[in-house]
Write a sequence for this structure.
């Protein structure tokens, strides 16, 4: 994926790919716009439970998954979301539904 006009932010002196995104639950139409760390090597998107709940997802009704992260083994629940990535000029540069 090509990011144009997407300067990375410095976090503790290290450049990190934090970009503005909008994440939406297509079933409820609820969305949130926030800054997110973009992991270009990730197979899936993860978010804190409180954001999923604010979008109207019933967490435990999602597809249960086990996975390894930086904190070790974890349980997550898969849900359908739409993710839109913006450049720093608030222009949409990528949108995916999954």
């Amino acid at each position: 994926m090509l990011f144009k006009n997407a300067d990375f932010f410095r976090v503790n002196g290290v450049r990190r790919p934090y970009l503005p995104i909008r994440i939406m639950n297509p079933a409820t139409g609820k969305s949130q716009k926030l800054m997110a760390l973009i992991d270009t090597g990730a197979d899936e998107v993860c978010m804190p439970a409180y954001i999923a709940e604010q979008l109207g997802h019933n967490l435990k009704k999602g597809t249960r998954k086990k996975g390894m992260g930086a904190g070790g083994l974890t349980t997550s629940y898969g849900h359908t979301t739409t993710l839109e990535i913006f450049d720093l000029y608030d222009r949409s540069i990528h949108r995916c539904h999954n």
The two ends are 16 Å apart (CA to CA). The CA atoms of residues 28 and 56 lie 6 Å apart.
